[in-house]
Amino acid sequence: MTTTRVGRPVLDEEDLRLLRLLAAGLPVETVARRLGLSERTVRRRVRAVCDRLGVTAPIQAVVWAARRGLL
């Protein structure tokens, strides 16, 4: 789990798994199937991750995690 300076979790294992699948170039439909979720839930979770990281696009979240060696 990645934490902020005050020790709060930023990304948990579920978030990282989601970002790994997106980093592999899989479409939302496939990501949803692999995670056993609906496409809407995947989109909502991606948006939540982006909001937590302060980025505007999923690819930016992937890059953020990759630069920190999380993916």
Question: Topology, please?
Answer:
Layout: E1 2-3, E2 9-11, H1 13-23, H2 28-35, H3 39-53, H4 58-67
Antiparallel strand pairs: 1-2
Helix pairs in contact: 1-4, 2-3, 3-4
Features:
single chain; 71 residues; mainly alpha; Arc Repressor Mutant, subunit A; two-stranded antiparallel ribbon; 4 helices; 2 strands; 62% helix
Largest sheet: 2 strands, antiparallel
CATH topology, anyone? Answer: Arc Repressor Mutant, subunit A
- Strand order within the widest sheet? 1-2
Q: Give the overall shape, derived from the CA principal axes.
A: globular
Category from helices, strands and their pairing: mainly alpha
Rg from Cα: 12 Å
Compute the number of helices. Answer: 4
Structure summary, number of beta strands: 2
User: Mean pLDDT, as a whole number?
Assistant: 91
What is the highest CATH level, the class?
Answer: Mainly Alpha
Percent of residues in helices comes to 55-70%
| Gap between N and C termini | 12 Å
What's the name of the CATH homologous superfamily? Answer: Winged helix-like DNA-binding domain superfamily/Winged helix DNA-binding domain
Please give the CATH architecture: Orthogonal Bundle
Return residue spans where pLDDT drops below 50 for at least 5 consecutive residues: none
Question: What is the H/E order?
Answer: EEHHHH
Could you tell me the strand content as a percent range? 5-15%
Number of domains: 1
Keywords: DNA-binding, Transcription, Transcription regulation
Domain HTH luxR-type: 4-69
GO molecular function: DNA binding
Protein name: Helix-turn-helix transcriptional regulator
